[in-house]
Amino acid sequence: TKRARTEFDATHAIRDFRVGSAAYPLQLTEQTPNRITGSFAAQNVAFTEDFSVEYALDPKKTDTLQVLTYRNPDPGAPNPTETRPRPRGVEPGFFQASALFAPAVQRGAGKQAPPRTVVALFDTSLSMQWEKLERSFQTLEILLRSLEPVDRFNVVSFNTEVAQFAPAPVASDIATVEKALDFVRGGRLRGGTDLQRALRAALDQAQLGEGERFIVLLGDASGTSGAIGNAQLAKWYASQREAVQSASRPRTYIFGIGDDANVPLLRMLSGDDGVMETVRSTEPIDFKARAFVSKIGARPLDELQLTVNPATGIDLVYPLDAVSFAGSVASWVGRYTQPGGTATFTTRGV
Q1: Could you tell me which residues come within 8 angstroms of residue 255 by beta carbon, excluding any fewer than 6 positions away?
Q2: For residue 74, what pLDDT is reported?
Q3: Is the pTM of this model over 0.85?
Q4: 70: number of Cβ within 10 Å
Q5: What are the residues whose beta carbons fall under 8 Å from the beta carbon of 263, sequence distance 6 or more?
């Protein structure tokens, strides 16, 4: 019999809590805005998916900063390798500061939305077969169906070769989106991956669009042709983007799919004003895919920083996420050297 007990504590009030994994039906024993507990027990459990939960943050509590602290006053046992134990001082403590920002005004709410151009790169190499291909197509479908009538798009499928849905970005009406999805369904998995050629094609397509441009890469980035070294390919891509005029320079959004996704490369490719997300084989994909797609066209918060006053005794402060968006939580962790006293935590951003 497998048994598990879960305690879920939240500094920001939550609502709409539910267990996302069907294999582990959690029985809730306590449910408040800031604390949820539950248990699970079953026999002959097949571990076919991760245990996951979904919840929403209470919008009434936006633009607030919450701080959690932890310090273990017990210094613990001496190091057994020490011949002369050192005197034990006061143990440092740790904190996590989380800021919940108000959602941005929805695109197109109350006025005509500015056009975007989205070029989707869809990996059709053999490394994407089976479940990875299905997840990649599901994300592509969410992406294309999220486009507004004023937007333009194109789909570029790639392995060692490159195939384009259209010669240039096209209008995102319902009929065209369906044709693009049929184009991808009709493709065949074959060969290796020439990511360099695919990125070159995407950059060229982005220049034929209008408005803000986005290159959206779906795949594992396991290159086998062209420039395949991570640093080499990332340096080349950065130079190619830099050569594009700033007004039409695309931002790079990457959705890495699979346990073997080349995360170091994906992080480098999306590092300049882009966004990267990954999904493992055991993770539910729907929420992550929709959250990822919702960021396309949104601008991350700029100049986001956390300050602590007094700053003495506070160190090792760093953000948990490289970029944060309105409507989400930005978090920092850090250490304080002495217990007691008071401190003021402030977060600022544009």
Answers
A1: 139, 216, 217, 218, 276, 277, 278, 279, 289, 292
A2: 75
A3: no
A4: 8
A5: 256, 278
